[in-house]
Task: inverse folding
């Protein structure tokens, strides 16, 4: 009996992920990481630090419909941090005389695909292509 070498089944995703093996030996790779002659192998994100954005998807707890300013961008993970959106609460213990115990609230990262640029004059979310036309820079 002759065994043939099985060709690696590769699927490409638009999301910012490294190579991931799914059931059935399917390899999922980000399209941005397999471009020919690409020097910067980091997926592009449509928002940048300092942009005003509106959360378009998610739960009311996370802040759906709220606006906020982008404080940090993580292109490798495809995530961003927006002030006032996706606030989590952590309980901390006192670890010495200088630290305090209690509840600490901070913003957690969210996927960049969940937000849109916000135009304050029209009070609506706009697509990133209209950044120059809407003077959102």
Result:
């Amino acid at each position: 009996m002759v065994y043939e070498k099985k060709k690696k089944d590769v699927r490409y995703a638009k999301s910012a992920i490294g190579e991931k093996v799914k059931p059935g030996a399917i390899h999922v790779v980000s399209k941005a990481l397999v471009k020919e002659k690409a020097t910067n192998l980091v997926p592009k994100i449509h928002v940048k630090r300092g942009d005003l954005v509106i959360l378009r998807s998610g739960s009311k707890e996370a802040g759906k419909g709220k606006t906020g300013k982008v404080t940090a961008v993580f292109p490798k993970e495809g995530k961003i941090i927006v002030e006032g959106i996706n606030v989590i609460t952590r309980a901390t213990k006192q670890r010495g005389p200088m630290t305090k115990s209690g509840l600490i609230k901070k913003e957690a990262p969210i996927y960049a695909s969940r937000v849109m640029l916000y135009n304050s004059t029209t009070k609506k979310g706009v697509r990133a292509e209209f950044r120059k036309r809407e003077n959102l820079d």
The chain has two domains: 1-41, 52-130. The mean pLDDT is 81. The longest strand covers residues 67-74.
